[in-house]
Every structure is written in structure tokens, then in C-alpha cells.
Amino acid sequence: xxxxxxxxxxxxxxxxxxxxxxxxxxxxxxxxxxxxxxxxxxxxxxxxxxxxxxxxxxxxxxxxxxxxxxxxxxxxxxxxxxxxxxxxxxxxxxxxxxxxxxxxxxxxxxxxxxxxxxxxxxxxxxxxxxxxxxxxxxxxxxxxxxxxxxxxxxxxxxxxxxxxxxxxxxxxxxxxxxxxxxxxxxxxxxxxxxxxxxxxxxxxxxxxxxxxxxxxxxxxxxxxxxxxxxxxxxxxxxxxxxxxxxxxxxxxxxxxxxxxxxxxxxxxxxxxxxxxxxxxxxxxxxxxxxxxxxxxxxxxxxxxxxxxxxxxxxxxxxxxxxxxxxxxxxxxxxxxxxxxxxxxxxxxxxxxxxxxxxxxxxxxxxxxxxxxxxxxxxxxxxxxxxxxxxxxxxxxxxxxxxxxxxxxxxx
Length: 411
Ligand code: ZN
Ligand code: ZN
Known about the structure:
Elements: H1 4-19, E1 27-33, H2 37-49, E2 54-60, H3 62-71, H4 82-93, E3 97-101, H5 114-127, H6 129-136, E4 142-145, H7 150-156, H8 162-176, H9 184-205, E5 207-213, E6 219-223, E7 231-232, E8 235-236, E9 243-244, E10 253-255, E11 262-267, E12 272-274, E13 277-287, E14 290-298, H10 300-306, E15 316-321, H11 327-330, H12 338-342, E16 347-351, H13 365-371, E17 379-383, E18 390-395, E19 400-405, E20 408-409
Parallel strand pairs: 1-2, 1-3, 3-4
Antiparallel strand pairs: 5-6, 5-18, 6-11, 7-10, 8-9, 10-15, 11-13, 12-13, 13-14, 15-16, 16-17, 18-19, 19-20
This protein binds zinc ion (2 copies).
One zinc ion binds at residues 252, 254, 318, 320, 342, 347, 381.
């Protein structure tokens, strides 16, 4: 039996070898909560063993972030310091690898001014535009992962004492990442193969539209662009050609919708942790792609601000399929963390689309937008999968095909 410490080490190594496919001589930037600095050190140690050129850190801290939103002067939310922009520019333009450890209190900014949150989103969206676009285009390897923090673990396991909640969340994270005691890298690769198989089936169908229906009241028709393809598992870095896994864990296969081709109503099936606030019981009505009505029982102000950061924020940019019986979903837990909740449920994102169009590398912005690709400074996943979700596809030649039945793939 491997100890927890051994499995954590193996997880750190998996993030570097399978998540980022870190190369000898490559720079690594890590975004990590400062109260879990030990984990960043573990990753840095593993990175240097793999021949990393240099590890650079972008520390973050929930407590300081909250202090800033509550007490800083009002105009600081309208700009980003040039050294922050430089950091992201140098990492992404210089072929660095980017490890983002997402772990924060889902309600860290509760009670903070939604206007400040929105202005900060817009400021960082503009200042870090190049970085985000290179990320979306896979021009450098990036990997999003999570580790427990005390406040987050307590939110997921409210009935357990802190130490037990931390242990339980570690167990969940390691299991979801295939670090289950066997050979983690081999397990991970087998999992990626299974996701590729699903994308191949979907790609062979050449779907034109998808219609979503369930008892929550969702009835949404989503057009898919000509030449779209389904992606999932590992993707290739377009500059080095090396495959990497942008999310660990991952259970999704995804593509993009036609920006102006989404019509109907969609209800969220899980709460959404959005910029330090939790949004609950919400949904959208869409007409010709645009969100014409957004509603939420809780967090409506933050939600409405989030879909208004720019024009593209009120259109969809991602269509992702995840079976209701996926391992993360079967845990029955609500994570209030998008990396985990998105991999437990079919989801959409509002905002920026990934260029899942054959030949996209050789197309300019205008050509991609002509195919229906949405552009925005934001990209926010929201979950819509339920046990009774039905998705029916229509192919190029008008044939109806079952894609999801009773919340799971029909093939
Ligand atoms: Zn997704
Ligand atoms: Zn997404």
C-alpha cells in the first residue's frame, strides 16, 4: 500500500509528465495558494528532476484577495500592474508550461461589491488577453488541477472535522486523477484513450444540431459549426506538437456551438462558484445565441455582471458532454469548484470558444468567427447534466440520432 504522501508525490509528477508533458530546459510557472506552499514545492522538486529550466511562482491568497476587494481604493480594480501582465506575457510567449492549482474558498468574495468584481474581470481580461488566447489555442502546455484547502474541504464535507474533510477531499482528488495505488501514468493514459474513442464516434456522426431536454425544464437546441470536431483527453501543443492534458481530472468531450445558433431555455443542475460567490438555481433563455434572460435564486447580481463583461460573454462558447455516471458524478458530492463539477456533468460555457474546427491553425480570426466561433475575455462553465437528460442529434443529412439517454451516452 502506498502512503498518502507517496500518492501526493505521484500526483505532482503526473501533473508534470501527463498534464504538461514538461520538457527538458522548459520553464514552469505555477499558480498556487500560498497556504498550500508545500504542494508547489513538491511540484517544483519533481519539475527539476525532469530537467526543468526554472520554476517561477504566482502565489495567491484568499484572505489577501478578500481584504483587497473590501478595502482597496476604488480605481485599483480598473487596471492590472504591468509586472503582472509581463509575468504572463513572458511565460506564455517564451514557451513555458503553466500549472494552475485551483483551490479557493468558493465564497471568498461573498458580500464584496459585484461592480468591483466585474471591473477586475474586465481589467485582467484586457491585460492578459494574449496569454488567454495562447492558452485557448494551446500555444503552450497548460494544466488545471486542484488540491484541498481547509475552507474548500469544509464546504464539500460540512459534517466532517477539518482534518477529516481535508483527508476525504485528497482521497477524492487522487482517485479522480487515477492516482489509485497502481501506475498512475499508465492509468491516466488508458483513461485518455477511452475519451478519444468517444470523440471518434461523435466525429463520425457529423452532427449539425443537438437538442437538450430534461425535467428541470431545459429545452435547448444548439447548432454546431461546419467542420467542428469533438476534442477530449489530451490535446497537442500547437508549437511543440507534444500532447498534454489541460485538465486533471478530465471526463469531458467538447466542441463549440455556432455563436448565433443556440435557442431555447437551459436550467443549471448544480450551483456555480463564480468569482468568489456561489450562484444557485439559475438558468438562461437564449435567442439566436444571445442570452436574453438570466435568472438565479442566489447570486443573480454576480451572474448578470459576469455575462456583461463584453459582447461575447452573453453567448455560448463550449458544448461539453459528461455522463451522469462518471466517477466524479457518482461520488454524489457537490464540489463548488468548476474543475470538479464540470467533470461530473454535461456543461456549457458562456464566453470564449475553443477553436475546435478542422484547419483552425491556418485560419485567421475573421474566418473562425465566420464559422460561428465566439470570442470573449471570459469563459465560464456551467453545469446542466441530470439523470434524465436526453440529447438528440441531427446529422448533416437530417437523420435523428440519440446522443444521451437517461443522463448517459447512448453509444
Ligand atoms: Zn469543459
Ligand atoms: Zn470550459
